Amino acid sequence: MATLAALAGIDVAAVKGLGGQRAAALHKAGVHTVADLLYHVPRRYIDRSRKELIASVPVGTEVTLIAEVKSISTRRPRRNLAIVEATVFDESASIKAVWFNQAFRARQLSEGAQVALSGVVESFRGRLQMKSPAVDVLDSPTESLVTGRIVPVHPSVGQASPGVMRRAMHNALKRSHPIGDPVPEVLQATHALMDRDTAFEKVHFPETLDEVEPARIRLVYDELFRLEIALAMQQKKRKRDASGIAHHPTGELTQRFLDGLPYALTAAQTRVLDEIDRDLRSDEPMHRLLQGEVGSGKTVVAVTAMLSAIESGWQTAIMAPTEVLAEQHFLGVVDLLAQADLSPEMLGRSSTLGMDSLFATGGPAVHVAILTGSRAATNYKSEMTRDDLLADVASGQIDLLVGTHALIQEGVHFSRLGAAVVDEQHRFGVAQRVLIKEKAGESDPDLLIMTATPIPRTLAMTLYGDLDVSIIDEMPPGRAPVVTKHLPRSQEGEAWNLIRAEVARGRQAFVVCPLVEESDKVEAASATAEYERISSLMPDLRVGLIHGQLRPAEKESSMAAFRDGETDVLVATTVIEVGIDVPNATVMVIEDASRFGLSQLHQLRGRVGRGEHQSVCLLIGDPTTTDGEERMVAMVESNDGFELANVDLAIRGQGTLFGTSQSGLADLKVADILADREWLYRARRDAFALVDGDPDLSKHPDLAAEIRAMLGDKVEWLFVS
Ligand code: ADP
Ligand code: MG
User: Fold this and answer.
1) Domain 252-282+296-451 - what CATH class?
2) Which contiguous run of DSSP H or E holds residue 63?
3) In a mutational test of the pocket of ligand 1, which residue from 271, 298, 300, 473 has the highest number of ligand atoms less than 8 Å from its CB?
């Protein structure tokens, strides 16, 4: 009997029909092994066992028609409207299908193609038509897996069409069957779950449509059960190993800091700070997720919390996902402290960063330093080497260390790390969160994780184990919402006109380059090309460039020039996605916007609208998919991250909710955490109970093997005692 753990050890390239190029594309899409493949479930099923004839379809109900394309045409009656019409026919009659602003349908469909159109048939001016049906282009209709039965439509990957995927799945299942099942029988019985081997069979090749849902539920349960077991183990391990710090903040630094700010905290910021303060004072380690819309003011909250820890005699650290962002945080922190006369003897940085106002003024000084991979910056003392810096961290001289992953690498030791902040947590793996604690020595520092990714509270707690959640649900006053517009490529001139007008008013603009996935190198080349294009389009403006391949010093000076108003336009890749704070920037232009995910677009848009000036976000490009089209519409219609997250869920499942690859533990393939949340709670209850009685899963070796094989490196540390 095969086990899922064993199948997770077999490369998907071994499946007949999926070698070579196809395997490479599958790997890229996250389908590495045969086990992954089995979780690549159909997105739709077409019922060919009961043939629906066009002549007799009922008006007003959802149907799937199998037909041949007779003709296709595109009309553009208005500037912002493209209408694609296709006439399709079967042996009984023909019918018209219409799509609005889905110009790519004309490319997707070709005369003579066999298609399945799913949607509602309407009566329009006395004739039947389908409005915006979903389309599946079918392979040759004579194939046995397709005729006279329920046809699964698997998501295509690269060049592997649904037909290719379907045949490969058939092979993979035949060779894997029967697959063992490590889920305790009593749990299966409690929830009346379908037998798992059967579930794999039925989810891919059901005989009737009624079989699909119970089969899917079985796989959903398993997927969530594995995740929750990992989370339960994580919680147990954390509690067992924990020895927290009870901070006793005096209020001296924090009060001075808050008094020095040019604004008052919002009610939401104050409430969240109270929640954090309670955690800091408690002797249980804080483990808190701080959620807040982009621009809601999380950084000030984090710095205040760190000052509380510092005034109680501890060191603090803040970890950012990129060097650019670490640099930005460093400057931000130093700047904030300077406003309250809390800045240290800042020396030596003025030459590199164009900052010359940061000198000690006699009050209490907070020693801030920055550490990134490529450079232990010449820091709070002039002429400081990396070793000097590490020595000062180890001796407790440095109160607040800003950095990237470099913070948790070899050689970094704190004398007394009392609190750590991790920014934009979706970029960090769980293991890293644990590592940062190990840097601390004796006690567990309080941990604050900041994210702008909106996740409903209950789900966040369920997905991230036992995190407490604080939400800043209010924007600082006086922010006019960013106005968003979608421009077809042919009208991009409007964007350049707007930039010129805003620059004439003294404002600045970002231009984000098209997303290139191949490699950093290619991305850098495309950014450079875009930089040249923009420079020649607007020769009168001062244009800067920033991308991931620049050397840190180059990135830094490019950011500094923009921040100081020495450049008008910053051409950038998504390195600017998170955290960049230049309130004078009022225009965000995103090239080929429909290729970005919604959360990424929302993050990018959050780079403007951060000051008192009205800001605009322009999305340029002609979407080539319905999803892309829908994302543009959603961005134009909503400024609310939570709402966009829901749209995102509706468009493409929970995928983007957790960022892309390094998404912590949750990388769900079958379960939809919103729609399936009842199963999430059940799986969680079962998992926590099981781990309570068997903390290291020694009584459930098959289950342990499956979890390790399916969740990979992300959970290995749970099994180390
Ligand atoms: P986030 O990290 O949540 O995206 P930031 O902390 O970078 O947001 O804050 C965004 C901007 O808002 C910064 O320029 C910051 O100085 C400013 N800001 C923060 N809190 C307030 C407040 N209470 N009132 C006015 N401006 C604020
Ligand atoms: Mg931030």
Assistant:
1) alpha beta
2) strand 62-78
3) 300
